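Reposting from the mailing list since nobody answered there.

I have sequence plus structure tokens for a pair of proteins and want to know whether others read the tokens the same way I do. The first protein:
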Amino acid sequence: MEKKLGRPRSEKTKKAILTAAYELLLEKGFGTVTIEKIAKKAGVSKATIYKWWPNKAAVIMDGFFDAAVVRLPIPDTGSTINDMIIQVNNLSKFLVSREGRVINEIIAEGQYDQKLAKTYRTIYFRPRRLDSRYILERGISRGELKEDLDIELIIDLIFGPLFYRLLITGDVVDEDFIKKLVSYVFKGIIQN
């Protein structure tokens, strides 16, 4: 007897769930969103959600990432430093928007919930790092940057101060700050 695999995942249903999760996140905040509320808003059963996502954090982060990825395209101006300035500027503008402030809530929740922390690192931050890695590797291949760079460290040097200001000090993050930040980092990595 052949085992049935079940119905295939419907893209329409998936989109409804992700949209519901994202809208509830923006309306109510992470702490008050539940699988029950997502299911009700999306018009699906809780079982449907649990079939595709292991927990609330995973579906919320997927919904968030699905919405955020459209707002954060990878720039290609022909100049690695300009691409990084645009990348950091776009991310900083996103992070101070209502949608982006959700990241602060999720990071705060992740301090007490290791599964959530792992989920936001995997679904949101790792892809953002890969985007930056791509820009820097492209700069190396163009001959703009030194070949022996520790790319992960460069990413930390660029984005660490951004998150420090946004999450800790509350100091201004504007285009001037971002240009200075990226320029200072690039002084040490530009190919001479």
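The second protein, same order (residues first, tokens after):
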Amino acid sequence: MANQCRTAVEWLIILTLGLMVLLVFGNVVLRYGFNSGLDISEELSRFLFVWLTFAGAALVLKEGGHLGVTGLLDALPPRGRQVCRVLSNAIGAAASGLLAVGACRETITGMGNLAPVTDLPLGVVYLSAALGASFMAFVFLQALWRAVAGRAGVDDAGRADMAEKRP
């Protein structure tokens, strides 16, 4: 199930990026080559970029690929590392949860507001933040559970392993 979810998010990212490239490149060709253009290109590519950002952030968090500063963590004894893992995962889960709640509220509010060019409800854009933040909160909660139980793996940098290692 986890691999299927990751594959679905990867395909969402691929399709979103591909559609953005087609929209922007096609609009450039139309503007400079034919002195016309697609009105929806700029707005739709901006909305797709928001979806791409949240899907990518959630996927990279699941794979443990975000940057981390481990100077202090490396200097701590194993018990101190575990305490830091618990605290950082709890803070990450809380922040992601707050973002998810706020984005859900904005999604509901934004469904009544339409984008000026595409007439898409703006709630669709905020939905990307709600889904991405919810997924990130879930990943943080999983890592928090592993850290509290003392089962958190440690990668080469000393960070809590929040992802399955890819072959």
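Reply #1 (J.P.):
I read it the same way you do. Confidence is low (pLDDT under 50) at residues 154-167.
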